[in-house]
Structure formats: C-alpha cells, structure tokens
Design goal:
single chain; binds flavin-adenine dinucleotide; FAD/NAD(P)-binding domain; about 450 residues; nine-stranded mixed β-sheet
Length: about 450
Amino acid sequence: MLTSHRVQTDFDCVVVGAGHAGLLLARLLADHGLNTALIDQRPDPRTADTSGRRPAGWALSINLGTVTALRRAGLWDYFADHAQPVTTMRVIDPAWGRDVLYRAAEIDGEALAWGITGSDLDTSLVRAVFDQPVVETIWNEAVIGHDAAGGRCSVTCRSGRRITCRLAIAADGRQSPLRTAAGLDGPRADFGQTALTLGVTTEHSHRGGGFEVLYLGGPLAFLPLPEGRAGKPTAALTWVFSREEAARRQTAAPASVVAELSALMPEHVGSVRITTPIVGFPLSASHARRLVGRRLALVGDAAHGLHPIHAQGFNLALRDVSCLVRMLADAHRDRGDVGEGAVLRRYQAARLPDTLATSLFAAGFGVVGGSASPVARGAIGMGAILLQNVPALRAALARVGAGTMSFPPRFRPDTAGVPSQSRRKSADPGSIGRARWEP
Ligand SMILES: Cc1cc2nc3c(=O)[nH]c(=O)nc-3n(C[C@H](O)[C@H](O)[C@H](O)COP(=O)(O)OP(=O)(O)OC[C@H]3O[C@@H](n4cnc5c(N)ncnc54)[C@H](O)[C@@H]3O)c2cc1C
C-alpha cells in the first residue's frame, strides 16, 4: 500500500531516498520554503512493524563539523540524547607497537566526534521530517527514472505514478537507480573485504575514548556509544576481514567470537559481550561520473560510496546537502529556477574537490591500513613517528577528521543549510548556510 499524507503532484524539489542524506535534505529544503516531496521504497517508518527485530549494531561517528552544522540549523536537539561525545581517538599500529592519540583538547573542541547508532540517527531524522509539515512524504514507492523536458522534470515510479518538479535529487544510496538511469555511474572499486559490525557492552567504561587497531588484514574500530538501557558501557565495533574470514566469524559460535574480541580489546576496556547480530557490509568505493544531470543532482552515497573505516560517509553527505540547500535557497529567493543548469553546475564545481579528495583518502587509508605489505607497514610506522612527534601535524589531521578543516584546503565545509529563523539567532551569520571559499 502506498502512503502519502497529501496528494499534490508538482513540487520545487523531489528527493528520492529517505536515508540519512535524503531525510536531512528534505527537512532543510522545506525549512527554506521550497515545496518538497520525499519518496522512498521503504514502508512508512511511523507504521512499519519493527517488533521482534533486534537493532543492528552498526553506528556512525559524526564529526564536530557535522554537529556544529546541525546545531546551527537548529536540529541538534533531535540527536543530542542519543549521541556519545568522543573526546579521544587512538590509532594503534600493533606491528610496530606505536600509537597516535588524537585529543579534542588539542583542537580546542568539546569532542572530535559523536557516536550514534544508525537506527537512532534514522529515527531522529524521521522525527525532524515529520515535524516539518511542508515536506510531503511518499512511502512504499520505488522510483525508476526521471525525464527532463522544458522547465520541469518528472520522476517515474514503479507503480506508474509520475511526479513533476523543477529538480529531482538522487539520495537513493550506493546502488542509486536514478544515477544509473541518468547514465552517471562512475568508477567503482571492490576491496574484496567485508566489514563486520556489531554492538557490544564492555567490562569497563570507555570514558569517551575511541580507538582503531590497524591489524594486518583489516582494522578493528571501537566507537563509544551512550550507555544502553542496562546501564552498561556500550560501543559499536567495525571489524574488517577478507570475505571468507568474515563469513567464518558470522557463522561461528558466539562464545568463540567473544573470546577472540576480548583478547583484542585494550586493557582499559576489558572483556566484551555482544548485544546485537553481527552484520556484514561488503567493502567497496564508488564515485559518480558527474554530480549533476539534466534537472538532477546527486547527494550522499548516490554521489560517492566511501570505504566506511574512515567514518566519513554521512559527514560528507551533510556537506553535499549543505551546499545544495544553500544554492537552491539562493535561487528560490531570487525567484529563479532551482533546476536550471547554471545552479547545478555551481553545485558540482563546489562539491567535486571535497567529494573526490575524501573518497580517495578513505580508499587509500582503507587499503594501506589493512595491508600486510612491508612497504605499507613501514609507511604506517613512519607516519606514526611523524604524528607522535609533530603536534601541529597531528592537530591538523585531527581537524580534518573532525570536519573543522577541509582537505583540499580551499574549501571549508563547516556549514549546513539553515532556516532563516536560525540564521537570525546565530552569532556568526556569515558562516550559516554558506560553504565558505578561502583564499
Ligand atoms: C558499516 C557502515 C559504517 C558507517 N560508518 C560511518 C561513520 O562512522 N561516519 C559516517 O559519516 N558515515 C558512516 N557510514 C556511511 C553512512 O551510513 C552513509 O554515507 C550515510 O548514511 C548516507 O547514506 P545515504 O542516505 O546517502 O544512503 P542510504 O542510507 O543507502 O539511503 C538510501 C535510501 O534510498 C532508498 N532507495 C533506494 N532506491 C530507491 C528507489 N529506487 N526508489 C525510492 N527509494 C529508494 C533506500 O530505501 C534508502 O532509504 C557508514 C556506513 C556503513 C555501511
């Protein structure tokens, strides 16, 4: 059964995909007065039956830049109670016994990042969308393509339904049917590995400390989460293996996985107890050929699918969303056409340096971090010596990871599209909703 709470069929923007990127985008576009529809093939989350389903254990590290942008957009209250500040992040190279400690204090931040489960992020964003009555939500409806003609385009659904708009925005994930239909698929890399994700409780408190151990074959990352209902220290683990090794652990007796994990945990964390199913994500990376087509723009995983170990997919998606919202809001305010080529070309030119650099960095870090090659291990060891001994370099890298300094350096992606109401309240009006370009 299709569900939508109104029957309008013509919009300024149609956002295809109500994942993390699409939900945020729809809310911000509507906050800026754009008449927006949000379509997803998933069931209406308000009525979907989730009883009996154990929550998946995967979680996201959302960085300081993202949290700052959400605060400025007036949306952070939706997430704050579900997010754990991460004040330190230790990257450990067991081969050389070296580690690098990144500290929030070193970059004058309250935290480097916040840990939040994928389902809490989803639930919070869904609430943010339903609190904004301008967004028309359409569920149980798969989009199969879009056509542009004259001053409008139409989005076609599998059911035969057509919805017209000035601009269609693909937020439909890594496999993005809309991107493929528009001929915008680009290069793709398969790492031949699987990231196992699981939730755990730990014997001792994590004290807001995350870590990543660069084991040969694949890293193990520990992301602190807020205490669960049982009042126990809680965390999400991402554990990377070859496809075969990952499959072996997914089918192994839980006690043997717990024993293996507990032996890998640093002393201050102690033993672990697994609290969720172990879910595997095959590791790949992709980048669209272009970020725009005729009356079409791509955001989030539809534009770029990252290697997840660098924990940047949603952070990068938020920067796409911020930039696009700012450009569309400007065009809308000037009574222009939000789907016209000039607006879309500006969006692509603004985003490509960041999306490509972040994709390449994440892929490079993913390959080198888990490689057994003596060259890679040597490079990691040398990099660790450098970072341990040059605080300014370490702080610069921490700022890039925290999203408060950009790479490449020209672009400062520290902003989200922000409604005019929040804009007035801000003490720093120049930065709100602006993707600032530095000299
Ligand atoms: C294991 C793992 C760990 C991660 N860790 C982090 C992290 O620490 N930090 C971070 O920033 N990011 C992380 N990410 C990445 C992050 O989850 C994504 O980059 C982010 O959520 C953006 O996703 P999205 O909304 O673009 O796509 P998706 O979440 O894939 O959403 C796409 C939506 O489109 C819908 N859809 C698809 N096809 C159609 C269609 N034809 N018609 C209608 N709807 C359709 C789907 O139903 C879905 O709801 C991680 C990802 C994984 C897998």
